[in-house]
Specification:
The chain is mainly alpha-helical. The protein contains nine helices and no strands.
Length: 210
């Protein structure tokens, strides 16, 4: 069998169109691991109730704050989902970090109930902006590189790293709170933009849009 130069050219073009499958952890997937670890590194998880009590907030009012968070997050879920599909998933994640920073800023400088309601509402919006967006962006990224069959495995690793990050942040946050109960909230203001920096996903596009 004789292969001509034209046949070789066609074979090269066909090969170049195939997804690259030569690594188990493509660079962009590693960025998702980094993002999830940073995203879940929340210093305030273990001390939020203590913070409320230190500011004279009763248990019943703390419960109301939790309800407000749940209601705002629920009401914003569908609108933010539509926005993510029509706009940009990576920018939704960046915006969610900015919303969190605003919430933590309010917590850091406030000591009364109404500002806490505003702050918890911003954190609820942060959750809605991130909810589902991360998973969808991860799938799109894997699909671009031909790794969509590894979605469940990669997502599981992301969630595992997130759990480890929460535990670590809780320990550190509790230690910092011994000196100043507001310090974990204050430090969280500056950590949110970093964990949502668009450079993590700068080469990722929304493949779901035609």
């Amino acid at each position: 069998m004789i292969i001509s130069g034209d046949d070789i050219s066609i074979m090269k073009e066909s090969y170049s169109d195939e997804p690259v499958m030569d690594t188990n952890n493509p660079p962009r997937v590693l960025k998702f691991y980094l993002f999830k670890t940073a995203w879940m590194f929340m210093l305030i998880f273990a001390i939020n109730v203590v913070f409320y009590r230190a500011n004279g907030i009763s248990i019943s009012k703390i419960t109301i704050l939790d309800v407000i968070w749940a209601v705002v997050a629920f009401l914003a879920e569908i609108p933010t989902g539509i926005l993510a599909d029509r706009w940009s998933r990576k920018y939704m994640l960046v915006l969610s970090g900015c919303l969190a920073s605003i919430g933590f800023l309010i917590f850091s400088v406030s000591s009364s109930y109404f500002p806490f309601i505003v702050a918890i509402s911003f954190l609820a919006l942060r959750s809605s902006f991130e909810s589902g967006t991360f998973n969808a962006l991860l799938y799109d990224t894997l699909k671009e590189t031909g790794h969509e069959n590894r979605y469940e495995k990669v997502l599981g690793r992301c969630n595992f790293l997130g759990v480890l990050s929460v535990i670590t942040a809780g320990i550190i946050g509790s230690y910092l709170a011994k000196g100043d109960i507001r310090l974990p909230f204050f430090l969280s203001i500056f950590s949110c933009p970093g964990r949502c920096n668009s450079v993590y996903f700068q080469r990722t596009e929304n493949t779901h849009r035609k």
